[in-house]
UniProtKB/TrEMBL annotation:
<protein>
    <submittedName>
        <fullName>Betaine-aldehyde dehydrogenase</fullName>
        <ecNumber>1.2.1.8</ecNumber>
    </submittedName>
</protein>
<dbReference type="Pfam" id="PF00171">
    <property type="entry name" value="Aldedh"/>
</dbReference>
<keyword id="KW-0560">Oxidoreductase</keyword>
<dbReference type="InterPro" id="IPR016163">
    <property type="entry name" value="Ald_DH_C"/>
</dbReference>
<dbReference type="InterPro" id="IPR015590">
    <property type="entry name" value="Aldehyde_DH_dom"/>
</dbReference>
<dbReference type="InterPro" id="IPR016161">
    <property type="entry name" value="Ald_DH/histidinol_DH"/>
</dbReference>
<comment type="similarity">
    <text>Belongs to the aldehyde dehydrogenase family.</text>
</comment>
<dbReference type="GO" id="GO:0008802">
    <property type="term" value="F:betaine-aldehyde dehydrogenase (NAD+) activity"/>
</dbReference>
<dbReference type="InterPro" id="IPR016160">
    <property type="entry name" value="Ald_DH_CS_CYS"/>
</dbReference>
<dbReference type="InterPro" id="IPR016162">
    <property type="entry name" value="Ald_DH_N"/>
</dbReference>
<feature type="domain" description="Aldehyde dehydrogenase">
    <location>
        <begin position="13"/>
        <end position="473"/>
    </location>
</feature>
Length: 481
């Protein structure tokens, strides 16, 4: 059983409540975890507020903070195999993804933001008042509640923890109840790295725990990655003390395949862009606009490539596609597929739960639809699963309007041999990130976040420093008292 971590101490929830996590590869119970209630939230917030004023943290030099974050990265790498296996068993992602992407990505984020600790600067600003010195300071926002999703639990915890701590905040991390275990281990490693008590706190639990953090008057900021529906609820919950919010929410990424695209390269890239982590990626390529002259060829090759992927447990080295995270989520994906067929989309491959030796797990066959139109729900709603809807277009001038006709704006993709086409579309598509002839690969050094209903604010790079600091202006009259 795993415990909560509050004020530097591990222990059960005050009420003794627990919940279980499942192995999505076979549906078996994997672990029992403490479920934080309102008293535990109060204790965590009090510990974080106390640590915020503790000289052991507030007076720590930027260089010392940097060494501590660097030490976390070293510990993550030292325990890479254990973390990767834990992520695979808890989340379902293939071990090659957990070990080759998730764990190295987490370590890289701690190293990147360790470098920022000594570079968080203010500025001297010329003002119009005579004999006046004006300068700015960047100061921590305060107590930050960091609420992470189930699709990449370890890496997304690092995305939030590393910049928040680099800026001198204290944190309460609340992982998704479906996949908390790699975050629990990460906090254990952070304890070993030497953070003072109360700087890093861990609460495991369900939606009620996250809502209690968002509503708490002692929390100064919420950073949340998850669905747009829950993001809207957090906006309302956080309004009491006007918390600072960073929200990375849903997506419905358009992938535009021009007539001149290298179709084989586009197929290879788009299969990965759509089906990476079984399509459980906020920026997953999710609606494919293909020039009608190439649509049949693209659809046929996409279906063949998707059907050829090996579906299986993440711990099996042969598996290329793992299970969905839960029975509930599988039912949601299947509902979208059945809805598309009812609306007249042509099912080319897949479209059902995997059977045979995989029947006890939450596996869903990679699914390709042809003949999809813009009005169909499969082209408009976030599926978050291994589903590829192909839409044809005739006029290149119409494609920007169609791609932008969505509530979401997290990412977009363009496939073309023409640089003019590539950069014209990149400029006109309303999305926080545009990937040209490549899959979606965020990096610690640059921006990540969405337009419209895909969220507020940006994470990663220098933009994360803005998200986790307040700017204070200091005015000094130089003409005497």
């Amino acid at each position: 059983m795993t415990d909560l971590f509050i004020g530097g101490e591990w222990g059960p929830a005050e009420a003794g409540a627990t919940f279980t996590t499942l192995n999505p590869a076979d549906g078996s119970v994997f672990e029992e975890c403490a479920e934080a209630g309102a008293p535990d939230v109060d204790r965590a917030v009090a510990a974080a507020r106390s640590a915020l004023a503790d000289p052991a943290w507030a007076g720590m030099t930027a260089a010392a903070r940097a060494r501590m974050l660097w030490r976390v990265a070293d510990l993550v790498e030292e325990h890479a195999d254990e973390l990767a296996e834990l992520e695979t068993r808890d989340n379902g992602q293939p071990l090659a993804v957990a070990g080759g992407v998730t764990v190295p990505g987490a370590a890289e984020h701690f190293r990147y933001f360790a470098g920022w600790c000594t570079k968080i600067e203010g500025s001297v600003v010329p003002v119009s008042f005579p004999d006046t010195l004006h300068y700015t300071r960047r100061e921590p926002v305060g107590v930050c509640a960091l609420i992470t999703p189930w699709n990449f639990p370890l890496m997304l915890a690092a995305w939030k923890l590393a910049p928040a701590l680099a800026c001198g905040n204290t944190v309460i991390i609340k992982p998704a109840e479906q996949t908390p275990l790699s975050t629990v281990m990460l906090v254990e490693l952070m304890e070993r790295a030497g953070f003072p008590p109360g700087v890093v706190n861990l609460l495991t639990g369900g939606p009620a725990t996250g809502a209690a953090l968002a509503e708490h008057s002692g929390v100064d900021k919420v950073s949340f990655t998850g669905s747009t529906e829950v993001g809207r609820k957090l906006v309302h919950a956080s309004a009491g003390n006007l918390k600072r919010l960073t929200l990375e929410l849903g997506g419905k990424t358009p992938s535009i395949i021009a007539a001149d695209a290298d179709i084989d390269a586009a197929v290879a890239g788009n299969v990965q862009g759509a089906l990476f982590n079984s399509g459980q990626v906020c920026a997953a390529y999710a609606r494919f606009y293909v020039d009608r002259r190439r649509a049949d060829e693209f659809t046929e090759k996409m279906a063949a490539a998707a059907a050829a992927l090996v579906l299986g447990p993440g711990l099996d080295p042969a598996s290329q596609l793992g299970p969905l995270v839960s029975e509930e989520h599988l039912a949601k994906v299947d509902s979208h597929v059945r809805g598309a067929r009812a609306e007249g989309a042509e099912l080319v491959t897949g479209g059902r739960r995997a059977g045979g030796r995989l029947a006890e797990g939450f596996f869903y066959e990679p699914t390709v639809f042809a003949g999809v139109t813009d009005e169909m729900a499969i082209a408009r709603e976030e599926v978050f699963g291994p589903v590829i809807p192909v839409l044809a277009y005739d006029d290149p001038d119409e494609i920007v309007e169609r791609a932008n006709d969505s509530a979401y704006g997290l990412a977009a993709s363009v496939w073309t041999r023409d640089l003019s086409t590539a950069h014209r579309l990149a400029a006109k598509v309303r999305a926080g990130a545009v990937f040209i002839n490549m899959i979606h690969v965020p990096d610690a050094a640059t921006t990540w976040g969405g337009f419209k209903a895909s969220g507020w604010g940006r994470e990663m790079g220098p933009y994360a420093i803005d998200a986790y600091t307040e700017v204070k202006g200091v005015w000094t009259h130089l003409g005497g008292a």
